[in-house]
Amino acid sequence: MKLLTRIFHNFFLSKLFSILKSIKYFFFLLLFSNNLLANNEDTQFSILDRLPTSIFATVNEEVISIYDLILRSNFFSVSSNIKIDENFKTNILPELISGLIDEKIQSQEIEKKNIIVSENQVAQMIQNIEKENGMKVGSLKNILKEKKTDISILEKQIKTSIGWRQLVSNKFRSQIIIEESDVDRIHNNLKSNIGKEEYFLEQIFISFENRNERSALERIKNLDKQIKQGGDFLSIAKTFSDSFSGKVGRIGWTPEIDLDQKLLDKIKKIKINQISDPIKGENGYYIVNIKGKRIIGEEIIDKVSLFQLNLIDENEKILSELKKVYNCSELEKFSEKYATNDSGPLGFIKYNELSVKLKQMVRELKKNQISDVIEINSNNFRIMICDIMKIPPIIPSKFKIEEIMISRKLDTLSRQYMTELRANAVIDIKI
User: Fold this and answer.
1) Lowest mean per-residue pLDDT among 32-36, 141-145, 241-245, 292-296
2) Could you give the CA distance from residue 84 to residue 77 in angstroms, rounded to a whole number?
3) What's the predicted TM-score (pTM) here?
4) In this structure, is the dihedral angle defined by the CA atoms of residues 32, 35, 54 and 64, taken in order, positive or negative?
5) How many Cα atoms occupy the beta-carbon half-sphere of 271 within 13 Å?
6) SS3 breakdown of the chain: % helix, strand, coil, rounded to 5?
């Protein structure tokens, strides 16, 4: 079956869904290769080594191989905790194909404009991912290797993402004019918001700009289904969410004034760590995960002094003794008797450098209170907060506000630019 045409994204995607219903050969190949990649390194290459030359599609005469799609599918399955099954074929595979095509279009434009992305830029981004998830620097590669997944797939995605942001900035930045009066207005509004709430958000956003409203609704419902079935929120967000800025998935602290009003009305009713149903906003659909709420104007945690405790045993006697410990000084004496050698004071750590799980724990604990067991990367331990350093609330500078406004305008221009490039792309699906 062959499709050769110049098409807009939403038309292509709808066609793709119908095409994939008949691609039984590829789906069985995907399932088969997935088992090989997971279980049999010696056999996999004897069967799969021909696939890099087996063409799935061309984009402007540049090849996407079947092997490319298999690797991307396996990588997404591992990172998102979504199994490759019939549901994957129907709901996820079309999105992955669409994403691969978009990535190919972007990489072609990056090459045309001679945008260079260094290995150091990619490495730094991977380190940021590791820090955000409470992982040791350099550990992600080993974790993926254990799961028979090549980190080069992630590196390729990151390289394209960085290059695309640079390209869009080079192309449109000079066209963006931010009025000083608009910056002043937002700055004054932020000052007036002291005492109001702000939210730490994780977000999936599907824009109306790249597709019609019906198509956007179908897409957000599909992603919502994957999350409810156990899919990893941030992995799904980073793969499918519409954004130019690079703040995909984890948005961070956002004041009420910066939120779509329709979105804000729903957020106010959502509990911390609760994932919303799809929410219709002004420019698209959202799924949000509320990771925290706080009042603007309250002192902000800057640094925390922590004591890490790894017990040698969880027997009743030790746990009973632990209940009698009421500060870090006592905990240090206790650890000499009942804890492993890697227990001890960690000193002051920047709050923003903590993993999301530890940040949440710090927010919930009081000073000199011992936590419940925390599990990070298969390690079980407890923490106690020995001291907390706080700083007064900081209102973003006018320069920072201007940067945010520019980023949002670039976000919109990026989506419009991609719509134009898709419309002019020659896409040939070979299967």
Assistant:
1) 32-36
2) 7
3) 0.66
4) positive
5) 1
6) 55, 20, 25
Q: Are 106 and 98 in contact (CB under 8 A)?
A: no
Where do we find the tokens 């149903």? 277
180 contacts 130 by C-beta, under 8 angstroms: no
pLDDT of residue 404: 83
Q: What is the CATH number of domain 300-391?
A: 3.10.50.40
The whole-angstrom separation of Cα 427 and Cα 422 is 9
In the chain, CATH 1.10.4030.10 sits at 3-168
Look at 33-42, 133-142, 211-220 and tell me which has the smallest mean pLDDT.
33-42
Tokens of 19: 């095409």
Question: Could you tell me the CA-to-CA distances from 72 to 45, 75, 92, 150 in Å, in that order?
Answer: 17, 5, 11, 10
- CATH 3.10.50.40 domain range(s) in the chain: 195-298, 300-391
Q: Which amino acid is at 181?
A: S
Cα 237 to Cα 243: distance, rounded to the nearest angstrom? 10
- The torsion region of residue 340 among left (phi > 0), alpha (psi -120 to 50) and beta comes to beta
Is residue 107 scored above 90 in pLDDT?
Answer: yes
Q: In what order do the strands lie in the sheet with 62-65?
A: 3-6, 426-429, 55-59, 62-65
| Second-level CATH architecture of 3-168 | Orthogonal Bundle (1.10)
What's the pLDDT score for residue 43? 37
Mean pLDDT of the chain: 80
CB of 276 within 8 A of CB of 288?
Answer: yes
Between 138 and 101, the more confident residue is 101
Q: How is domain 195-298 classified at the CATH fold level?
A: Chitinase A; domain 3 (3.10.50)
The b/e string for 317-344 (b: 16+ C-beta within 10 A; e otherwise) is eeeeebeebeebeebbebbeebbeeebb
Contact 126, 158 (CB under 8 A): yes
